Amino acid sequence: MVIAEIRDLAARRYREVVLSGIHLGSYGRDLEPRTSFHELICRILSEVPELERLRLSSIEPLEVSPEIVALVAEEPRMAHHFHVPLQSGSGRILREMRRPYTPSYYSDLLHHIHSRTEDAAIGADVMVGFPGESDEEFSETYRLIENSPLTYLHVFPYSSRPGTHAASLSGPVPSHVAKFRAKALRRLIAEKNLEFRSRMIGRKLEVLVLHSGEAISSNFIHVYPSDVLPRNSWVPVRVTALKEEGVAAE
């Protein structure tokens, strides 16, 4: 069904398809015969040759296999883009969140991705103000992000939901503290994203025109060409300068 859908989209001239879903990387474990997300990607690329670019949405850290990282690095039709939820850089907070990975595992994974695909956009979801989060535990999150190759973040202050494990925990973080922490992370990632986009100046990119005046690169940068270009077309451009939310190109 997935492949048939993508084949139909490609036939209707959709040039890029994004694979998305909850626990996307666990695809195929409950099927008979059993398969994997990596195998699905390989089948899509093999069986739908007319598909021009495939992009992956959010994948949990333990589901980002070395094979998937290698495929993104080596296959020209794969977008150089990963989104890997972090939630917290504190080991204790991750355990309270019942997340099955450690900060060091997460950090090593991101550096492995970066070593294989240096120009990849790498994003994450981060929660601040989780019950009991101390200043030092927030600092652990800050330092992990600061020392990582992350290029963008989705930052969320914790919001209590009745009936959840987190709602029963003691040590609520005052809202003004959570907002301050969220602001600090957004400021940090803005600096990292600026540095990431700055590295693109002078480079040639093939971009997909979304609409008049705006396009998207393989590595998730919004590109604003100087010329009016036809929508839904691939266009080679050279990055000339930074823009507030992306880069200018000609």
Structure description:
This protein is of the alpha/beta class and 250 residues long. It has three domains: 1-79, Transcription Regulator spoIIAA (2-Layer Sandwich); 81-199, Transcription Regulator spoIIAA, CATH 3.30.750.200; 204-249. It contains seven helices and ten strands. It has helices at residues 2-11, 37-47, 66-74, 91-96, 103-116, 135-146, 175-198; strands spanning 16-19, 53-56, 81-83, 121-128, 152-157, 204-211, 214-216, 222-225, 234-242, 247-249. The strands form three sheets. It has a five-stranded mixed β-barrel with strand order 6-7-8-10-9. The protein has a three-stranded parallel beta sheet with strand order 3-4-5, covered by helices on one side. A hairpin with a 2-residue loop joins strand 6 (204-211) and strand 7. Helix 1 packs parallel to helix 2 (37-47) and helix 6 (135-146) packs parallel to helix 7. The longest helix has 24 residues, at 175-198. The termini are far apart. The model has no long low-confidence stretch (mean pLDDT 94).
Per-chain topology:
Blueprint: H1 2-11, E1 16-19, H2 37-47, E2 53-56, H3 66-74, E3 81-83, H4 91-96, H5 103-116, E4 121-128, H6 135-146, E5 152-157, H7 175-198, E6 204-211, E7 214-216, E8 222-225, E9 234-242, E10 247-249
Parallel strand pairs: 1-2, 3-4, 4-5, 8-10
Antiparallel strand pairs: 6-7, 6-9, 7-8, 9-10
